């Protein structure tokens, strides 16, 4: 730490620097890299000796070896406290790599197995008349179903969600507001299958009706609502109070202040939140299993008869062992991932572009 | 305004009775009322979920001839069903997920909040969030058709070396086990746990951190003495939120597990089932009483996740009072 002022090789200063950190001299900058190479080499040798050399295993084995080598070297040169610090650094970086690994694996597998089957034909034809063991077919019926169901969900959840957020930020005081905030949070944790069961019991059993696309949309809206509320709430809170006060001081009624001053200021963030909530529910499968039925045919009318959807198609085809069904499952998965990614990227783009400058 | 002389008798209402006054009141009243109504609607929906599930669960509960809590079998159409095996499978797979995910998630959160370069941290946090955006059905497909063949050797290895522990015992010949389900769940709940931990770690007062560093602490010692103690309630509530997600996860588990209704001490052996997966898998083929029983199991799941989530939120809310932390 004070090496520039106190040269470490001066023997008389030794006890003072020791009292702060038992450090003699820091690990040279090239050392960790050399140790990393050594760790990889050691793990390869070890695996060769055991006769089971492959890339993933070599990576898995070399990380702890690297941590051990760095720890040992640092303990000798810098003392045990620095060594511990370095080992923890290796562990923390490893944790992050561990999170990226499955994400990459899912993306790469889906692209590898799905890309070649994701053709214009696949996107514009339905599965009608094509058995699970047959080749061909497409997901046009699922795309229509997903868009209509998610659209219905958004039509229900967005207005209600905006109103709830406005209530919480602009009006809500006291016990009721606290209860609403709390249960909106709890609602984000409602399992998706429970939302499906709720619509099934309340609507399908309650009114004795049959599975339809609209009931799927209703179930999705329950999952969407808390996400819309939370993100809108955060955005409304970012709107500076000066704007509200300026508007009210000019005699503008409160509701008009909210509608024409507060909301437009936060609109970028609100749109982002809505898009992220759409991205969240577009891949939901469980509630649809219980509420929309399933069909191989194109059904434009969400209010009449069973409807397909992209997640349901994946769920259905994934179980089938026929290679054609597998291809269809992966290609549908790729379509869905692309939809979710596009929604996410556009949403973040809007957020960056129109973020309220309140920080 | 300018032409009408001021009414000196009622100066206070003068302001209130201008042309737009009644309009203001009406618009405000409608807006306030509808937004409040929307707030109440949230409470009504939560109450309605519990009520409707309970009403529809009662028929199967009354006609059941076995003890609901202790029976492992699930054959409601013959009035022989219970939730013991489902509860066990749900709990075990979620615990495996937590054991795997929590330490890694804390590491990720620390990486983003204290290790990664500032400019990079935002992007890396976004990459972790992308993991949360992948739909669960795709994790299921990936788990069933990709991960299971790669995780089987690992499960065999654990079985070979640690088979003497009952949890890892039995014979391993398929990856459709609670362990595989737990691994996939761990991946799925990583982002939420990491995100909540990250928020809390970022709110550690700078003064605490700088004080630790100024006293000569290394980065790890600073984290251990300043960041982790401050963040502990956040870690606890993040864990509970993750648990809530894991308990209710449906489709990924339904795709990965080969369902069986038996309590098996070994997590590596094929079989097991969870509340949510069981509902999705059995819903299509079961008759009316069966559906009622599925609804009953869904009600149990709803109540459990409700408790877990309320607990998690209560921990966060208590923290909020003195730190302003939000998650």
From TrEMBL, chain A:
InterPro entries the record matches: MetI-like, MetI-like_sf, Phosphate_PstA, Phosphate_transprt_permease
Domain ABC transmembrane type-1: 143-347
Biased composition (Polar residues): 1-10
CDD domains the record matches: TM_PBP2
Record's keyword terms, sorted: Cell membrane, Membrane, Phosphate transport, Transmembrane, Transmembrane helix, Transport
Membrane-protein topology: Multi-pass membrane protein
Location of region: Disordered: 1-21
Main function: Part of the binding-protein-dependent transport system for phosphate; probably responsible for the translocation of the substrate across the membrane.
Protein name: Phosphate transport system permease protein PstA
Highest classification ranks of the organism: Bacteria, Bacillati, Actinomycetota, Actinomycetes, Motilibacterales
